[in-house]
Amino acid sequence: MPQRCPVAHTLDTTGRDIHAEAAALRSRGVAVRVELPGGVLAWSINDYATVRKVLSDPKVTKSARNHWPDFIEGRIRPDWEMISWVAMDNMVTAYGKDHVRLRRLVGKAFTPRRTETYRPLVERLTNGLLASLETVEPGEVVDLRKHFAYPLPAMLVAELIGMSEEARVATAEVIDMMVDTTVTPEQAQAVLRNWRGAMEQLVAEKRANPGEDITSDLIAARDEDGSRLSEAELCDTIFAILGAGSETTINFFDNAITALLTHPEQLELVLSGRASWDDVIDETLRVESPLAHLPLRYAVEDIELDGVTIPKGDPILVNYSAVGRDPKLHGETADRFDVTRQDKEHLSFGHGPHYCMGAGIARLVATVGLSSLFERFPDLSLAVPADELQPLPTFIMNGHRALPVRLTAPVPAAVG
């Protein structure tokens, strides 16, 4: 790919310190040329005001098949390490009328009224996981990411799309590899092949035995006038719901629990009622966005950003890990976790036409999950110093490989 601007930074694929990397990029400008795996060049957008502008700009698209010349003309290898992020054909990557059509179909499952009907399911899944944790001997160390933060949102989204627990467990490995930016080309190709195969199998099962789930609803929508889905759109859209609905919420729980356990005075404010779980949710999303550096968007036309021109067709990454900590928005304490902060403005749910449709469900599961966890285990503590927690091997997501905690004797669950 020809360089029209010097590369300022090669992204660290291991994700060793995403916040330091985000701060370094932000200090170099609102739009900085970066190198992705495989030598692919892109632009990192690094401050709040500019990201907000880009997310709502009609001259910015997420459709590689329509607006990325290197993809369209075959210069992006089919085994490129990040191929799954651009090869999808769904509401996430659609543009214009196709995006509106797909979003309208899926949006029926995420209305406020429909979201509230999911509360009993969220509570049942949460209580089941907490009951399992109660069997652990007090003082014993357990990986709370593996046994709570990961399964709760993953099981919820699987139930919403009608996926069996066996299929969910098998697909989880594929999703984990998709966000891993240290994968080899061979692994990347296997990821694309495996998740598509899993979605095709789910669609076939639901076509034969429809149920009360999002997949069955989308299959039925294929026959409605003016809203016909292609088979590829159907499979890829279901996968987008599964991936986006689980992976980000997993990392949210991981980050929120870590922040509260490393700031016990903040946790006490919540447990005493002087701060709310909504405060925790928004402050966590601000200072520890579960998405770090999200690929990819593309310039439909030349775009001017604070004196920098992003040429037509160039790929763009949104640096969410830099946005919430932007000192131009949140001052000198921007990188400090503080649930009492008045302005917790963030863009972790996005902005503009791609704003997260599942934000309501995410807030529901976050509130139920966190409040129930700390009501049952109010004296929960980290089993290792926070600086020993190992980050995920990725610059796309923000979380830990494991979250070892020491459980205390649980408080009995309320009855009735």
Low-confidence stretches: none
Q: How many angstroms does the end-to-end distance come to?
A: 63 Å
Widest sheet: strand ordering: 1-2-3-9-6-4
Separate helix tally: 19
- Helix fraction, binned, reads 40-55%
CATH superfamily, by name, is Cytochrome P450
Strand content: 5-15%
Structurally, the number of domains stands at 1
Task: Note the overall shape.
Answer: globular
Do you know the CATH architecture?
Orthogonal Bundle
Assign the CATH class. Mainly Alpha
Mean pLDDT: 92
The main pleated sheet reads as: 6 strands, mixed
- Helix/strand class: alpha+beta
The counted number of beta strands is 11
Protein name: Cytochrome P450
Family: Belongs to the cytochrome P450 family.
Keywords: Heme, Iron, Metal-binding, Monooxygenase, Oxidoreductase
Could you please describe the fold and organization of this structure?
The protein is built from 19 helices and eleven strands. It is an alpha+beta fold and 416 residues long. It has one domain (9-406): Orthogonal Bundle (Cytochrome p450). The chain has a six-stranded mixed sheet, with helices on both faces. A hairpin with a 2-residue loop joins strand 7 and strand 8. Helix 8 packs antiparallel against helix 10. The longest helix has 32 residues, at 231-262. The mean pLDDT is 92. It comes from Streptomyces glaucosporus. Keywords: Heme, Iron, Metal-binding, Monooxygenase, Oxidoreductase. This is Cytochrome P450.
